[in-house]
Fold these 3 entries.
Entry 1:
Amino acid sequence: METNKNYFLQAFLLLIISAGAFIAFKTILPKKLMEQTKLESKNVVIDSLLLDALDEGKNEEFVDANDTLIKKIITYKPNPKLGIKYTSEKFDNYKGYQHIIPFYEKLQQLEATKTGSIRIAYFGDSMNDGDMIVQDVRKLFQEQFGGQGVGFVNITSESASSRATIKHEFSSNWKTQSYLKTKSPTRSFGVNGHVFFANDTLHPTWVKFKANNYKHLTQLNNPTLFYGNSTNKEAMISYVVGKDTIYKKLNGENQLNTLKLADNLKSVKVNFINAENVPIYGFNFDDGKGVHVDNFSNRGNSGLPISIFNVGMMQEFNNKLDYDLVVLHYGTNVLNYGSYDYSWYEKRMTKVVAHIKQCFPGVAVLVISTADKSTKYDLEMKTDSAVVPLAMAQKKYAVKSEAGFVNLYTLMGGDGSMVKWVEAVPSKANKDYTHFNYTGSKEIAKLIYKEIYEGFLLFKTLNKGYIVPKRKNDSVYTKIDSTNE
């Protein structure tokens, strides 16, 4: 019995000593007890250009000539075409609507005439995986301005099984090159950052799409294949419409080629026959009217891979798809890599936007900042210390690039907001404290759309001296002499 008492006393003393040691050392332990990598989704990876930029950033000094930008008043000159001039903005409240005038001008024309179309390229990361957020932005635009169709869809996709806006299946033998992993592809990447090859001569290579019963997405509107040039004269596709099997040759004579399958289908399975070495990019589905939004999201994307787009090829895509706005929605994969100095990212993304403007001449650019993200500090989930510095860097490169800006971090509530979104009932974000779920994605889409639409309302107020001519085939605005109103 005495032995048991001694053991109990020893254990109790050990517990007291351990507790005292923890309290003593707590003050010198790092506040960040758990690295965020333990909380991040398995979908969060890093693209190769980000790794390169991180290595280079450690060895270079970035002297920012606009280091006082945060104290600067941003002034605007009158738009050379319309004469519209926006009021000055403080950096803290920067939105840059002035730089989206070409998009708003065309949107006003679409609203007034109910004719024509507008197209948005929405580039993003795992936040938009499976068409998250983008699907609801698309829906809001199409409800307001018309349009049918899901837009451009890859040949294969890692998120196909989780995408609700279209049922997407494909054979497992496609050969794929992605701009996240390959800097020098054998053939130019498409606007989606991928190029696909049906190089398996022993097994069928196919892709299948089926429309779901989502509003505005109930059909595969005008399914059209996009593919590159090739000397292969035997390549063809086959697909079934009704009781007929249709064969069509892939005549890859141009840098970028299109092949329309039919007017509208509910589903289609396309087989690629003798199509070795023909670069395949994807299918587009739209009715040619209203607004169309293409989701070009990639897990692990920092935005930097856009810098390796081939300008000539992108201009070809732009000639066929006619973009009016490019959205850059990044941040998830840039947070937390050893420093809160994101000047290296600001510098490189400024070059990315300049490259986009070469690829898509005259197209407006809109930057969407990182959302809030939480990390464990002192056993409590709080806004990660890197979020605000990254959002600041994103705003800086938007200002310097003359792009519009949406501060998603502040829109969702700012400091501590991700914790609130996770703990909401029903929950609006995942337990990784990084990604939104379907409920949260719908709300985020509404916040983004509201920002864009409020800018449109301001544009219409400033542009009230212009009307759209009654002739539907006249696409230009005519100024009204205010003395004759």
Entry 2:
Amino acid sequence: MKQIGLFGGTFDPLHVGHMVVAECVREAEELDEIWFVPSHIPPHKENASVSSEDRYEMVKEAIATNDRFKVTDIELKRQGKSYTLKTVQELKENHPDCLFSFIVGGDMVDTLGKWYRIEELMDEISFIGVRRPGTTFETSYPLSTVESPLLAISSSEVRERLDNGKTVRYMVPEPVYSYIQRKGLYGC
């Protein structure tokens, strides 16, 4: 059975910290692949700054050279709020040959109790928590833990820098940087 780590997020935009986390989790948990799952409408945040299609394309371009990274548009096709439970149930139904785990950063670990139908979700999938700066990483929910190099880069910082006319080169993968420039996203 193929071992897949699901890495959900807004990815607004995807940055190098996301890439490092994905690779560290894949290696530490001995996963066959990491599937990036860009949200359509994140239930825990305000709307994203750019369209879900642009965020999906940025991820797709960024991971193109890593054959162990994939991206799925499952949440974009479903429309509406992107609840993890619905995504996991649909993926399990469509890929019965795969065993899925869900990757969450420390900021999300701290809020698991607020997730949509969390008890049911815990019955559907195991969680892998990744430590992030400034989070307590305390939860009563079962999860495995992966240590990753702490890169203090956030998508909100990337957006703020772009909004202020500053460069984000090397903060985001080169294909993401090129896509942002090419499409004039985030005020560029």
Entry 3:
Amino acid sequence: MMPCIRDALLLSHGDGFLGVDDCMLLYEIYKPKNPNMCYRKYDKFSIHKFSDDECKNNFRFYRNDIYHLRDVMQLPLEVTCYNGVQVDGIEALCIFLMRFAYPCRFADLVPTFGRPIPQLCMITNEVINFTYERWGHLLSSLNQPWLSPSNLQIFADAVHSQGAPLANCWGFIDGTVRPVTRPGKNQRVLYNGHKRVHAIKFQSIAAPNGLIANLYGPVEGKRHDSAMLAMSGILNQMQQYSMNPEGDILCVYGDPAYPLRPHLQAPYKGAGLTADQLAWNKSMSSVRVAVEWVFGDVVNYFKFVDFKKNLKVHLSAVGKMYVCSALIHNARTCLYQSTTSTYFQLDPPALDEYFFDNE
């Protein structure tokens, strides 16, 4: 539409001269749509200007814990973007945390950090890429120190002590649907008929200490949970790592969508269930709700990933955003615990133990 208007204006003036009204029309058409934020009038960022409560509200961590998080994540002291822009590691981490703490625009970050919008965008993407590439394996592999056989047995004992009939269940598996903006193409691929939204899906295993032990995805929103299970290959990992110190099999528990396997249990299915089977299902369901609490914590503390109008599959790394939010959620749980860890009376690992470099 705009090139047509421009061509019509140019052709209507054979001598190539445009009047004032024509120039103003062209200016209105082609002027930048983003507001011109005068970032120079704001002071440069300093985390020491914020109290502990302000840091907790804006960045989801206390001030000293932000320094601790930067160190254990091995974020460089100076983060360099692809165009050469350099920023202090603490400031880069705070930009990332504040961006994801609530559904804000980059323009909303300008007064806090005193930087232009393009720099804020590049710095955020740099931290996302670093976190995903450096620590993404913490959510893709069960071969982690805090998931040792002795700890898995402790998890199973905690789940059993809360009334679960299964004595060897150390975690809960489930799929989560993350709504996104309706894409311009491949709409049927992303459409989830059950939730009636365009979405991407993830498969998570939640441990009773409040951490996400495994996260697979993203996959297309139309995928069934059983399909994600096969695609993830998590059962192969569990055959290798899901056991107690004596070598006995430990399992995770899922909803009726999952098949029965030695390392994967599900409720009794069918219409003619006995009273004992119904009671068994109810007891397991009462403790399985913990996995929903973990999903809720991720989107409650990092609300940006729950604002679908800003999650555009073909324009931003939506999958990376959720994975990084899950990693930072685990870090936050290590420091401050969570509803799930309190319910099962289990302490999560220390932050240094979680971000252990075993590669």
